[in-house]
Design brief:
With 271 residues, the protein is mostly helical. The protein has 13 helices and no strands.
């Protein structure tokens, strides 16, 4: 009986450790300014206040939240479209050097992202697209595309060839077989790739901080720095931003988590 309870005790401990920062941030977001900087510090607010949330709503954080949605959704669509066709082509249509090509695609992601900031900035300046949505979407596509190719390739490798052959016998071209048979059956894997790309792009900070200087295009990860001053950091407002801007991503993940798990398992486990 004790052995049955032990895994749950360990799980509760780990979950408590993981959730503790989120709980503390949430409590901190409901403190007023005087209590935030008061001593000794408190965990649970003595008096719950919406002061920090009023500041957030009246700042340009909602604008940066909109920008994050545009950047994340745009990157998700581009990455999903290109990685799907690339992964399917490499998986189902072998050619001399296809294996080397798949490894070459992955190699581009092995390079540390920080080492690419200077060449990327030179390239984007030459193209004249710095401080635009297009700029950051291109950069995020570069970061996510190789990994999504490999995620989807693992799924397409296990995709039943008989289904594709049957569709072609029935009169479908290769393109129609992909669009009418393969993609509908692969919806779970595609959803997993789309969701992971969305969440990774949503959390991007370094590239957005360097390449985007206008609040009209900055994502919320950069907009949050409005409350970080040279002398004072508004911790309650900073916490309110974290809570406020996490809600869309949390809802998105809760609704789609089953697709993430199912998609990754289908791409990684042999049937």
């Amino acid at each position: 009986m004790k052995s049955d309870i032990l895994p749950y005790i360990v799980l509760v401990i780990f979950v408590s450790i993981l959730l503790s920062p989120i709980v503390l941030i949430t409590f901190n977001s409901f403190k007023n300014t005087s209590e935030t900087f008061g001593w000794p510090p408190t965990i649970i607010p003595k008096e719950f206040s919406l002061e920090a949330y009023y500041k957030v709503i009246n700042s340009y954080v909602p604008l940066t939240l909109r920008n994050s949605i545009i950047i994340s959704v745009g990157t998700m669509i581009v990455v999903l479209a290109f990685s799907t066709f690339t992964a399917y082509g490499i998986s189902k249509y072998k050619f001399r050097g296809s294996r080397q090509l798949s490894f070459a695609i992955l190699t581009t992601r092995i390079i540390p992202p920080l080492s690419l900031i200077v060449p990327f900035y030179i390239l984007m300046s030459w193209l004249g697209i710095t401080d635009t949505f297009l700029c950051i979407i291109i950069l995020e596509t570069y970061m996510n595309y190789p990994l999504m190719v490999w995620t989807l390739k693992g799924f397409f490798d296990d995709f039943p060839q008989d289904l594709i052959d049957s569709a072609m016998v029935d009169g479908c071209s290769r393109a129609n077989a992909l669009l009418r048979v393969v993609l509908p059956v692969s919806a779970v894997a595609l959803a997993a790739a789309a969701i992971i790309t969305f969440l990774w792009t949503w959390n991007e900070f370094i590239y957005a901080m360097i390449f985007l200087s206008s609040p009209n295009v900055q994502p919320v990860t950069v907009g949050i720095f409005q409350f970080v001053g040279d002398e004072v950091i508004e911790w309650n407002s900073l916490s309110a931003v974290a809570v406020f801007t996490s809600i869309p991503a949390i809802i998105f993940f809760i609704v789609a988590q089953k697709y993430i798990i199912s998609g990754l398992l289908r791409g990684a486990v042999k049937r």
